[in-house]
Amino acid sequence: MEFLSIFVVASVPIVKVLLLGAFGALLATPYLNILPQDARYHLNKLVFSVYTPALVFCNLAQSVSPAKIIDWWFLPVNVIMTFFIGTLLGLIVVKVLKPQPSLERITVACCSSGNVGNLPLLLVPAVCLDSKGLFKQSEVCIQNSLAYVSFGLAITTLILWTYTFHLLKPAQFKERDDLTSANPTIRNVVDSGSKEAQNEELVVMKSFTEEEQFETLELQEFVPQAQAWSDIFRNKMKDWASKFPLGILLNPPNAAVVAAFIVGGIPLFKRSLVGSDAPLRLIQDCLSTLGTAALPSMILLLGGNLTQGSSSGSEKMNASVLASITVVKLVLVPALGLCFVLGASHLGLVPEDPLFRLVLLVQYAMPSAFTIGVIAQLYNMGEQVTIVLFWSYICSVLTTTVWTTLYLWILF
């Protein structure tokens, strides 16, 4: 197949996403006000809690099996490599450009955390439909591609809400967390002393302001070292467990992935739910109907949310840092990822399925994940991240098309 015809095939899904995204941006404008911020918030909750889990479960449950789980072992390795390569390049950008301390974490996070879940759910199935014979059975291609991407989405969500969540956390939040975990230790130790000393210490501790709490650590000098360290460790574990986002790790998309693996991995459950002869196929059909709303809703939200980036945060983001993040995420990471996947394929670590290899390669060509904006908003850094996401997705219309064209040209 000629390079130009492949370019047309690869550009069609990107142009579809762009047109529907532009329509979503138009609906979000004050002139129409059909998709305002409140509406996007509630639609986003539906996509997150209902549409995406239904889409993920249906496609993954139909395709997964114990044998395929073993065959797909390279997918989580590839997702981890996208974060690893992006982190290294992000640290190099920080070292060379020396941005403001508040932008260092944003730079590394935006370089490392790609949208390897939601956007490939839009792109790869569209390539299956518009591939003009590259993938012979488009329905099977769509089903398998969504299964591959859904499996990668689960790994991505786990990394985003652990590694990226901690990476974006400002230093003052970490210091405050350390103090809140240390102060209960001091109070527990003081409780073992006399009542007079306990009352005096409690009065003193109540008089401390948040900035003066560092001085309370000096009380540990009067505590036996063994008891102090054991109490510190125990309270640190309790504090970590209370703050760790277990609820987010067990969010609806991840729960759908787990449920799909259980159903697909156990033949009795799969025969009951999946297939035209399944006695409970009505449940699968209902979930499939809900899942069809996921992709168009994602695109409309994509356009509506990106309108915030064109007018906010640009004055706070250094132009050189913004350009560097865009080049790293959309040019250097895909180039290094291509070398990694081709090397792994040469060593026989990757299955021969060209669709599987396409999904691996596309994961490197994606712009930064929108989840970064959600996490950054928790720490009042949303404006800077929004402008990065805005320009990243605008530039990805060209870069993702070029990279997808190159991938198809190499694979076929």
Automatic annotation (TrEMBL):
GO CC annotation: endoplasmic reticulum membrane
Superkingdom as given in the UniProt entry: Eukaryota
Residue intervals passing through the bilayer: 6-34, 73-94, 106-127, 147-168, 244-269, 289-307, 319-343, 355-376, 388-410
Primary subcellular site in the record, as a coarse category: endoplasmic reticulum
Keywords: Auxin signaling pathway, Membrane, Transmembrane, Transmembrane helix, Transport
GO aspect biological process, one term: auxin-activated signaling pathway
Location of the protein in the cell: Endoplasmic reticulum membrane
Membrane topology: Multi-pass membrane protein
InterPro entries, alphabetized: Mem_transp_PIN-like, PILS1/3/4/5/7
Task of the protein: Involved in cellular auxin homeostasis by regulating auxin metabolism. Regulates intracellular auxin accumulation at the endoplasmic reticulum and thus auxin availability for nuclear auxin signaling.
Family: Belongs to the auxin efflux carrier (TC 2.A.69.2) family.
Name of the molecule in the record: Uncharacterized protein
